[in-house]
Amino acid sequence: MNLTQLRAFHLVAQAGGFSLAARTEGLSQPTLSAQVRALEAGYGVGLFDRQGRGVRMTPAGQSLYAVTTRLFAAEEEALALLTGARALTRGHLRVSADSAYHVMPILAELKQRHAGLTFTLKIDNSAAVLEQVTAHGADVAVMAKMTSDPRIYSMKLREDRLVLFVPREHPWAERRRLRIADLAGRDIVIRERGSITREVFETRLAEAGVVPGSLIDVETREAVREAVAAGFGVGVVFDSEFGADARFHPLDVSDADLTVGEYVVCLQERRRLALVRAFLDIAREASQRRQ
User: Fold this and answer.
1) CA count, 13 A, side-chain hemisphere, 98
2) For 16, left (φ over 0), alpha (ψ -120 to 50), or beta?
């Protein structure tokens, strides 16, 4: 088996395209393409569906990517252990998060300390983020979901809380807080199922025996804001993400615990990889500063 061809496949799968893989690794795109074609031809299997400038892995490619991720992660870990090198000069980190707010300061500090590093960041809901980690689609993640999966290393980064918000012209805009019972029969604009926002809020409503009006699902936080602005209902977001928007007025819920932890997670087997370890170290320092 040709490891050079396997590595070429892995780089393209990781980057999501031949051009980006070539730029990230400082390689020739024709060379990468030739190596992947040779791998496919040698074993009579298609690994990518070519789509314009991008690619999508076939089912066989997805299965092989899970194997090469473990293979090259083990190689990187072995190299780190043998060399004992602490200075990171190059590498690519795949990061997933359920919000850019908490992860960006960590990435900014990582980039400042190790200027040669590159990273990709994918934003999705907490369920999808955890799936990306367990499926080797992300090296490390930041999400508001605690997990007891023994395969996962988890470290608490900080606490956040859910707040409600309404347009400035709403009758509730003169209030600072309300009770959860006030939401009975009210339309709520909230993230889709799979998001920790939805999970926590629905749990608290059920615990209080409160039945709201319609739950209006939207897929992004930006869409939540615009739906509330358009008068579709009361919005629910994390306090850290509410920001400064003159159109809206925030409201605390006085009689329900809407506190949520934010966690940094990775696979246990990847904790000692140099890039992941550097990310975890910065996250730990940030957590300690908040204590």
Assistant:
1) 29
2) left
Neighbour tally for 5: CB within 10 Å: 19
What top-level class would CATH report for the domain 1-84? mainly alpha
For residues 116 and 231, what is the distance between their CA atoms, to the nearest angstrom?
47
Residue ranges in the chain assigned as alpha helix (H): 3-15, 18-25, 29-43, 59-83, 100-113, 126-134, 196-208, 221-229, 239-242, 274-290
Strands 188-191 and 234-238: parallel
CATH of 158-260, one of 3.40.50.720, 3.40.50.2000, 3.90.1150.10, 3.40.190.290: 3.40.190.290
**For each of the chain's 291 residues, which pLDDT tens digit applies?**
788 999 999 999 888 888 888 887 888 889 999 999 999 999 999 999 987 667 889 999 999 998 998 888 777 767 666 654 455 666 788 999 988 888 999 999 999 988 878 888 998 888 889 998 988 888 999 998 888 889 899 999 999 899 999 999 999 999 999 999 999 999 999 988 888 888 999 999 999 999 999 999 888 888 999 999 999 999 999 998 888 889 999 999 999 999 999 999 999 988 878 888 899 999 999 888 876
Q: Is the pTM of this model over 0.85?
A: no
CA distance 15 to 109: 23
| Domain residue limits, the chain | 1-84, 158-260
